[in-house]
Amino acid sequence: MSLIKSFKLVLAPPHRAATPFLGIGLLAGVLGRATPWRLTRALGTAGFAFTGFCLYFFRNPRRTSPQGDNLVLSSADGRVTGVSMVAPPPALEMGSEPVWRVSTFLSVLDVHVNRMPVSGTVTKIAYHAGKFLNASLDKASEHNERNELRVTLKDGRQVAVVQIAGLVARRILCDVKEGEQVQAGELFGLIRFGSRTDIYLPPGVTPDVLEGQTMIGGETVIAKL
User: Fold this and answer.
1) Cα separation values, 183 from 38, 101, 209, Å
2) Distance of alpha carbon 22 from alpha carbon 34, whole angstroms
3) 138-145 LR contacts (CB < 8 Å, sep 24+)
4) What is the dihedral of CA 146, 152, 153, 159, to 10 degrees?
5) For residue 170, pLDDT beyond 70
6) Does Lipid biosynthesis count among this protein's keywords (predicted)?
7) DSSP 202
8) Cα(81)–Cα(78) distance, integer angstroms
């Protein structure tokens, strides 16, 4: 990545979900630094530092998605931590036949907005309150707080994308509803402060990525339909 691209990534405008956190950080910073007491001034400095962290964490860089109805794109930035054959989430009613699942772990330093892997119609959304285990663990897909989406393609095949909260995450944001038409690479949500996304491919479709690869949300092709 070039130096210019690196700066653009770091300085990208934040997602709207950052607004309350930025407000709290700035207010704490201004009020704290305006006082003569050492402790409150230190808290003010911490407030400004928190504001800077939120600007970085919630950044929402512009992405250019490759074109093609047969492409499945990564839903998030991060590192592939699992490529395995498993049954789709039962709540999405996609059958019990094992399919390929690609799991991408997002560290606190990664871009955390989530993007649609394919174009189609959101035909099922299932939210599950749960635990907050380390999102890189395989059992997080069954026990952690998560939000599951089923997207039906024009040809009737289905792809699932699951937002999974991590160790310190406490809120999953999803901006789409059942029945909504979506486009591949389109922003659809965010998970706060460390997380993971799983993509379940249709039967017979194999992934083109391996464990350890770095993903770019909305740009990296993980499979061809």
Assistant:
1) 52, 21, 22
2) 18
3) 138/82, 138/103, 140/164, 140/166, 140/196, 141/101, 141/103, 141/196, 141/198, 145/169, 145/172
4) 30
5) no
6) yes
7) P
8) 9
195 is catalytic: yes
Residue with the bigger pLDDT between 11 and 100: it is 100
Beta bridge partners of 101: 84, 200
| pLDDT tens, residue by residue, 74-98 | 999 999 999 999 999 999 999 999 9
pTM: 0.83
CB-based contact 47:32 (threshold 8 Å):
yes
Residues in the chain: 225
Q: Which residue among the candidates 65, 75, 103, 195 is catalytic per the annotation?
A: 195
DSSP 101: E
Distances (CA, A) of 152 to 24, 45, 149, 187, 200: 40, 49, 10, 17, 12
Three-point CA angle 51, 55, 59, nearest 5°: 165
Q: Closest Cα to residue 146, out of 205, 189, 94?
A: 189
d(CA 63, CA 185): 8
Q: Do 121 and 182 contact (CB within 8 A), yes or no? A: yes
Q: What is the Rg, in whole angstroms, of the alpha carbon atoms belonging to the chain?
A: 19
SS3 218: coil
Comparing CA positions, the residue from 155, 150, 174 lying closest to residue 95 is: 150
